[in-house]
Design brief:
Layout: H1 37-53, H2 60-65, H3 78-89, E1 92-96, H4 102-110, E2 113-117, H5 134-141, H6 148-166, H7 170-182, E3 185-188, E4 191-194, H8 197-200, H9 205-211, E5 216-219, H10 222-225, E6 238-242, H11 245-251, H12 257-263
Parallel strand pairs: 1-2, 3-6, 5-6
Antiparallel strand pairs: 3-4
Helix pairs in contact: 4-6, 6-7, 6-11
The chain binds 7,8-dihydrobiopterin and fe (iii) ion (FE).
Residues 96, 99-100, 102, 105, 115, 117, 132, 174, 177 line the site of 7,8-dihydrobiopterin.
């Protein structure tokens, strides 16, 4: 039973992954033998370059758990990572051929299974790729699954996503994911740091998000964050800042049904809109 490919946004190219090998739930086996020497070399070079950029810019909590990925000279076997991950936070990473439909994505997260695309970008795409590949997912997302608070937040996000889909509020919840797990900033004792996977796996956006005077940096606040649109193919124009991972977890404790009802009556914010002047 194969699956139809999944494409997001105005992607002009067909999706990269081979969805015919995906099961009902869109997971597949990591096709480890398909990796070429060039693939392993691309992963190694991306890992070396990105890990050298982390000090002073990436969350210390991320830097502390990054070594849990194991191998850096080649693409790791997901089974090897899972042995440690299961022991640490009862999460498992599962291979997928690429982006998967929202409901399938939320269901996996709700079951503490994180979908990891198993192909890697071509050498000529070293600088940038729109679709998440194995480097974005492994280097960007997997280390913080070893952090108990983030691990619980992402499961709760998945549970909330299934409810949001039923309430037609998927886009509002997707923004929360985008501005935290993908592009979130955190205030640590040593200063402002990045914890979002989209930033941590990007050579250019890591410094930009933490140090550039250009983007807006607002405190994470559900009513604002869930109404702020985002762009998928440029650096973010707005980042949302938290003071602790616990804050994320507590934020998503209540049921969002009434919040969605209120917010859908209010105007949205453009990705680069100014903060409201507090009256
Ligand atoms: N699929 N494999 C994969 N990885 C993602 O991060 C992902 C996805 N599908 C949908 C999605 N993210 C976002 O739209 C979520 O906000 C739902
Ligand atoms: Fe991602």
């Amino acid at each position: 039973m194969g699956q139809a490919p999944v494409v997001y946004g105005q992607s002009s190219r067909p999706p990269r992954g081979d969805y015919s090998r995906a099961h009902e739930d869109f997971t597949c086996a990591q096709d480890f033998d398909a990796y070429t020497a060039a693939d392993h070399d691309t992963y190694h070079r991306l890992y070396e370059r990105q890990s050298a950029l982390l000090p002073g810019l990436a969350s210390q909590a991320f830097i502390d758990v990054l070594p849990k990925l194991g191998a850096k000279e080649r693409i790791p076997r997901f089974d090897d990572i899972n042995e440690q991950l299961w022991r640490a936070t009862r999460w498992q990473i599962v291979a997928v051929p690429g982006l998967i439909p929202e409901r399938a994505f939320f269901s996996l997260l709700a079951n503490r299974q994180f979908p990891v695309t198993d192909w890697i970008r071509k050498p000529e795409e070293f600088e940038y790729i729109v679709e998440p590949d194995v480097f974005h997912d492994l280097f960007g997302h997997v280390p913080l699954l070893f952090n108990p608070v983030i691990a619980d937040y992402i499961q709760r996000y998945g549970q909330g996503g299934l409810k949001a889909e039923d309430l037609g509020a998927g886009e509002m919840l997707a923004r929360l994911y985008w501005y935290t797990i993908e592009f979130g900033l955190i205030r640590e004792p040593a200063g402002l740091r990045a914890y979002g996977a989209g930033i941590l796996s990007s050579s250019g956006e890591l410094q930009y998000s933490v140090q550039s005077p250009e983007p807006r940096r607002l405190p994470l606040e559900l009513a604002r964050t869930m109404r702020t649109r985002y762009k998928i193919d440029t650096y973010q124009q707005t980042y949302f800042v938290i003071d602790s991972f616990e804050q994320l977890f507590e934020l998503t404790a209540p049921d969002f049904t009434h919040l969605y009802e209120e917010l859908r009556l209010l105007p949205e914010f453009a990705a680069d809109s100014a903060p409201l002047i507090s009256t």
